[in-house]
Amino acid sequence: MKDADRKAEAAAPAEAAPEFAESADQYKVKLPDFEGPLDLLLFLIRKEEVSIYDIPIARITAQYLEYLNGMRELDIAVAGEFLVMAATLIHIKSQMLLPRDPNVPEEELEDPRDELVQQLLEHQKFKGAANALHQRALIEAATFTRGALETDEENPEVAATVFQLFEVFREVLNRQKALVEIEIEREQVTMAEKIAEIRQAITEQEEVSARRMFERARSKRELVLIFLAILEMVKELIIGLKQAETFGDILISRREPIEEVSEEEVSETEVREAEIREDAVKEADVRIENQESTEP
Amino acid sequence: MTIEELKPIIESLIFVSEEPITVKQLAALLDGEAKADIEAAADALVEEFQARGGGLEIRRLAEGYQIRTRPEFSEYVRRYLKSQPSARLSLAALETLAVIAYKQPITIPEILEIRGVTSTSAIKTLLDRRLIVAKGHKQVVGRPMMYGTSDDFLIQFGLNDLSELPNLEDFEDLMTS
Amino acid sequence: MTIEELKPIIESLIFVSEEPITVKQLAALLDGEAKADIEAAADALVEEFQARGGGLEIRRLAEGYQIRTRPEFSEYVRRYLKSQPSARLSLAALETLAVIAYKQPITIPEILEIRGVTSTSAIKTLLDRRLIVAKGHKQVVGRPMMYGTSDDFLIQFGLNDLSELPNLEDFEDLMTS
C-alpha cells in the first residue's frame, strides 16, 4: 500500500499535489486545501495507513471531527458539505454498534460502510483521471498550430452556435451593467440634491409614497441618501411620515406650508449638515460592502 | 547545434510565423548559432520540401522563409475556403445578432443603448445574410425601423422556434454563485 | 485518384484548415473520392510526418486531422510567439472536467453527488475556457442543464474521440492495493 501511495503521489501534478503536513500544527493551516469531505477522508485513510475496504470507522470519524474543530478554531467557515459528511460518518458509526440480527445469514449482512467506500473509490478514480488529463494537456500545450494565413485576414469571422450566441448576449449585458454602474458613480448624487428632490415632490403633491422614492434609487448609495434625507427632513420638521398599516407604504407629507423651492435655494446650513451626513453614508457604504463580502 | 538539429526547430518556427521569417530573426531566437548555419539549414528545408513533392512548400522570399500550400493544389484550397459555413460572423455582427434574437423586435437606437456602440454595418451584414428581417416601424418619434430574426436564423442555429433559445434562467445557478 | 495523388492535396487541405479537418469534410472537397481512400491517404501522411522527424506532425484530433509543431521544440516556438503557457486549470476544475468527460452528459447536481462538493465555479471556468458545452435540458424535475465536453477539449487534451480517454478502472487501485 505504501508503495502504491508513493506512485500516486509522484504522478500527481506539481501544483495539484495536496501538501500533506507533518505535525498537527501544520495541518491546521493546510485545512482549507481539502477541496471537499471526500478529499479529507482519503487523506485521513492514507495517513492512518488503513484499508479503504475496511475503514476503522470510529477512529476515522474521531479524526474527521477533530479536523472540523481545527477549522473552527482557525475561524474557517466549515462548508456545509463537510458537516453533511460528519453526520454520515456518525450515522455509519452508530449502525456499526448495533448488534447483528442473528437470523440473517453472514453473507446477506450489509456493511453500513459500503456506500461510502464506493463513493471514495469513485472519487479516487476521478482524481487519477484528472491527473492523467493534466499530463496530456501539458504535452498538448507544447504544440502549436500554424500562423494565420493571408486568407484568414480576409475572413476574420467566427463560427457560432446557439450557446455562443447566448454567451455573447450575456457578455453584452454584463458590459452594459458595468457601464451603467460607472455612470451612476460619476453622477455622485448628494444629499442636498435628495432633500431638494423631496421638497420638490411634496410641493407638487400633498403626499408622496416613500416606497416610490426608494424604488427610483439606482444604487445602494442613492438609497441610503434618500433614507437619510427623509430622516433629516423629519428632524427639521419639514415633513411628516404616515403609515396606514404595519408594513404598509409610508407616505411623506408636508408639515409646514412652504413656498416653492428650487434646487439652488437649499439653505447653506442644510448643505453643511448634508455634507456631515454624507460621511455617514460613506460609512454605511462600507458596511454594506462588508456585509456583501461575508455573504456566502 | 548541427545543421540537422537546427532543421526541425527552424521548420516549426517558419510554420508558426504569420509572416515570412528572416535569418536575422531566427538567429535571435537561436542564440549562439551562426547565421551561416541557420541559412544552410533553412535552405536545406526548402530543398527537402521541394523533393518530397507533398502539398506544402517552403519558399525563400526577399523578406524571409515562408511555408505555404503548393500552387498546384490551389483549386482545392479555394474550394475549402468557400466551403466555410456561412454562419461565420464577426464579433460585432454576432453581438448584434444576439441582442436582436433576445430583444426582438428592436430598433437600431435601442441596440446602440444595449451594446454601447453603433451597429449599422453589422445590421447590414445580418440583413445581407438574411439572418434578420425588418419588422415594421416603431410608433415613436422618428418612427425607427424594428428588426427581428428570420426563419433562416432558426434554420442556421438549429432551432424550431425562438422559445428554444437558451435563456438566462438556464444559467442562473452558475451566475448567482 | 490514387492514394499517392490524394496525399499532397489532403496535406494542403489539412494545412489551410484552422480546425482539425474530418474525413467527411475532405470527402466533400474531393468529390467522387472514396472515404476509405481519403482516410488511408491521411493516415499515410500521419506516418510520413512521424517518420520524417521534422519540426511538424500531423495528428488525429477531435475526429479530424491537424498539422502542429512537435512538442520537443516548444521552447523556441514559445520564445518566438512570446506566448505564455495558458493558465493551468485548478485541481477543482480538472477533477470536475474529469467527471464531466467520463459521465457526460451530466447535470450540476449529479456532479455534486460524485464529487461531494459544489462545482459551480469550476463549471464556470470550464465554460469560459470552452472545454465544456451545455448539451440541453435533462427531462427531469427542474429541467437542469446537462454538460458535456467540447471539441476544444479533445484538441487541448490530444484526443481523437472520447474512446481515447484513459480507462477509468485503471485508476482504481492507486491507493487500495
Write up what this structure looks like:
The complex is a heterotrimer, with one copy of chain A (296 residues) and two copies of chain B (177 residues). With 296 residues, chain A is mainly alpha-helical. Chain A has twelve helices and three strands, in the order H-H-H-H-H-H-H-H-H-E-H-H-E-E-H. Chain A has helices spanning 2-11, 24-30, 37-47, 57-73, 80-97, 114-140, 150-154, 162-187, 191-204, 210-215, 220-235, 268-294, and strands at residues 207-209, 239-243, 250-254. Mean pLDDT of chain A is 71; it is low at 1-30, 151-158, 258-271 and 284-296. Helices cover 50% and strands 14% of the residues of chain B. Chain B has nine helices and five strands. Chains in contact: A-B, A-C, B-C. Chains A and C meet through helix 1, helix 3 and helix 6 of A and strand 2, helix 4 and helix 5 of C.
Quick tags:
heterotrimer; A: 296 residues; mainly alpha; three-stranded antiparallel beta sheet; 12 helices; 3 strands; 4% strand; elongated; disordered C terminus; B: 177 residues; alpha+beta; two-stranded antiparallel ribbon; 9 helices
